[in-house]
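Q: Fold this one first, please.
A: Sequence and structure below.
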Amino acid sequence: MIVCRTESQAKQALREVETILGKLSLTLHPEKTRVVDPKKECFDFLGFSFRKWESRKSGKLLPYAWPGRKAMKRARMRLGELTAARWLRIPLPEIVRWLNEVIVGWRNYFSFGNGTRQFQALDDYVHMRLLRFFRRKMGSRAKGVRRRFEDWLKNSGIEPFFQKGIFGQAR
C-alpha cells in the first residue's frame, strides 16, 4: 500500500515500484494492484478494509479501518470448525481454550481500527455456536438447557472479541 495526496503522485509511485520490482525480476499482480481514491471507495489490505469518511465529531475527513469481509468469513469458519459436532467428546474447558486462542489472536491483530460492529458480530456468532454445541453436548431435550448454558457461559472464561472501553462504545 502506497499512500499519496494526488492521483498523479500515486500513478508515478506505481511506475517507480514497477521499475524497482522489474530489476528484481518481480511483478505486481495486475488484479490486485490499483489506484484507489479512499474518499470514493473502500479497499482491502492485509485483512483490513480502508476508507475515508467525515468524522461525526469534527467533520474532518479521516481514515477508517475495520476487519474486511474475507477476514470475517475466515474467522467465522475457524470458530465454526472449533464448535463442530465432531468435538462433542472433548471437554468444554478444552473447547473454550481453543476458542480463546483464536479470539485473542484475532482481536489483537484487528484491534487497530474501527471494528466495533465486526467484533460484536463475532461475539454474537460465538454465543450462537456455543449454544448449539452446548445443546448437542447436554441433549437438546434436557430441561432448562438455555438457562444452564447462560450460567455456564458467565463462568466459562470465554474471551470476548469486543472489549468495552478499548474498541469503542457498546451497543
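Q: Good. Now the second chain.
A: Here it is, same layout.
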Amino acid sequence: MNEIVETFRDKEIMFLIHCREKKDDLLQFLAANKFEFTAIADPKSILAADVFHILGYPTSIVIDRTSKIKYYSLGSD
C-alpha cells in the first residue's frame, strides 16, 4: 500500500485504511510500523457497516471526488 501511495503522491488522492482495533492499539501499531496513509480506528465497526458497507476483509473501495463508489472488491482478488 505504501508503494501505491508513493506512486500517486502528487495526485489529489487520499488513501485510508479501516481498522477494527481500538484507537490506542492502532496508534501503538502505527508507531512501530510506517504507513504513508491514514488509518481509521473503528472497533465497533460502525463506519464499516453504516458508511462503507464493508461485509468482510479485505475490502477495497475507490471513491471519486463526488463521493461515488467507483470500485468495490470484497476478498483478495
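Q: Anything worth noting on the second one?
A: The chain has three helices and four strands.
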